[in-house]
Fold this sequence. Notes:
CATH superfamily of the largest domain: Aldehyde oxidase/xanthine dehydrogenase, molybdopterin binding domain
Bound molecules: dioxothiomolybdenum(VI) ion
Radius of gyration: 27 Å
Largest sheet: 7 strands, mixed
Shape: globular
Number of domains: 3
Number of helices: 14
Amino acid sequence: MIGRPVDRVDGRIKVTGAAPYAADTKIPGVTCGYLVTSTIGRGRLTGMDTAAALASPGVLAVYTPFNPLKLFAYVQEQNDERFPPLQDTEIRFFGQAIGFVVAETWEQARDAAGLVTATYDQQPPVTEFPGRTLQAFEEVEEVVGTQTVGDITFTASYTTPFQHHCAMEPHATVATWNGDHLTVYTVSQGALLVQRRLSETLGVDAAKIHVLSPHVGGGFGGKWGNWAQVPLACAASRALGRPVKAVLTREQVFAMAGHRPRTKQTLAMTCTEDGKLTSIVNDGVTSRGLGGNWSESVANWTLTTYASPNLRVTKTVVPLNLGAATVMRAPGEANGSFALESAMDELAAQLGVDPVELRLRNYATLVPNTGKPWSGKHLDECYRLGAEEFGWSKRPKQVRATADGDWLVGTGMATATYGASRGQASIKVRLHPDGTASVSGTAADLGTGQYTVFAILAADELGIPVTRVRPDLGDSTSPAAANAGGSNSTCTNGPAVQVAAKAVQTELITLATTNPRSPFYGKEVSYRDGSVSSGGLTMSFGTLLTTCDVGGVEAVGTSPRLVDPEHGFRSFGAHFCEVRVHRLTGEPRVTRWLSVCDAGTIVNAKAARSQIQGAVVMGIGQALLEATEVDVSARFTNANLASYLVPVHADIPRIDVRFLDHSDPVISGLGAKGIGELGIVGVAGAIANAVHHATGVRVRDLPITLDKLL
Ligand code: MOS
């Protein structure tokens, strides 16, 4: 069953609106919380007037730093808010939570929030990048080799803007207490991430916190962390003795729920006359929001992509008065690859070498910065198959060589790679008397297809149809499985599903041979395709459980973390695209796309293709449309889905995706690596390269908008 195209098991309930998302949660007596946010970007709160809000209809409470809900400091780093909300008067960014109004209805809470006023001791916020800064510090330097040598030198700088995840579902949390037990319905990329954060900040034993996050309307990294509505809803519910629902507005999501940082990379490369790299230096600069701790290692992609005896990357972090910068699909690598993949194209042109050929000449058969072998790498096959299928050999060498009416036509390509790893996961499989099997773990499905991966792998191992497996995700009381991040879910959870589905067969056989009601009592039996057999007698597990009058059998299987210091683990791919740029208006359109991926075993051909297509769509947004602007008050100005441009259907061509489907023999028995982030890496570079090929204009600053092409 592994590798076939399978429809999403949760598809029907999603498209019919039956899937329960956090904000859909209906609890009798639920109250609504609405956040009050700062209207300056830097300074200190000197006072707040909440009298009018408190007197407003239906208002139950107004919490502020002067009348706070007690929250303890966060202990562990989680790429999210550094400070729990309302615990101090310092303003670090525009749109920071400074109040929480709870009322009987959402409208009452919103209207009362509008009556809260605040006074500030204001300072000028720092938002310039990379210019004037609060403090900039060089944080990391990794050096491989000792000298830079070579005949040909290339150097250039590449910049990328602030971007936002723009998941369709805004951040929502519903909290309700029963005595000292808390139940939380929330958006999340992992129920355990929420449980841990809440345990820290509420001072409540994690075992008393039940987190439910069965369906998530997109995450892209923005729901890995916990943002202000999570602890505030829970703490207010505890204080008021009523359930509390809090949903961020879209503008609040932009301000406080994480963003992709701004970056600048300055690449310097040397190579021999035949195009063999002798050194690559990448000095990366990245912004960090003062609302958080996290910063992006933007230059590090350079360490693992091409063979070069000398490598050096640096990281300079520029703190700004903004909410937390956080992980966003392929953090570091989506931005990092834009620079190196553009630079490789520029170097190829300088040398007069074909861009695919230049990549093959610098093919990293070993991990460039460690010298270790790869667990599995077939990137050369991606290049060759991609070039052949795309018709790369027909590409004119000259730029601006092809026109179709008023459209200049160009093609470009780039490399994609993204890290792979296998963590520890435990999964429970239970066989039921009705002939179905349930599979549970704390994993999350953000629209990624994880439900269906669980169903396929359990069905495959149990030998029953996918439709008879019921995956159960997003519940913190399930066995601890992988959170949805780092393209890690299938790689980590998949082997655990297999182990658990095998273990439950052992439980079933024990029941069959030891239960006095079983027709197999005391016999030698075997399990196959959902049935137990002995001699001429075969009985499905559902019938056997019914015959034995037991409610089910279950087993928990654990797949351990992979510790393998001998290998480098990554997924690989190659993108090929055609871009048309209007001769008169400069409008760029992506018109053809092919991605060839080498990501180990593919579990669901249909969902895997969707993952890569979705990532390419997001990469087209990164390349051509997406940028969040900041004004002098440090406010993200286009903080809505009308002004922050993301691709729509009309912006997207047919996206052809091929998988090589070489199992990775080292990462697990399943052989699956990650695909969630791989597809966006290299997309912006491929498009920039095609734009250059079409027009002769090299744009080194994302997004590639028409003003830069006129
Ligand atoms: Mo993702 S950016 O791995 O949460």
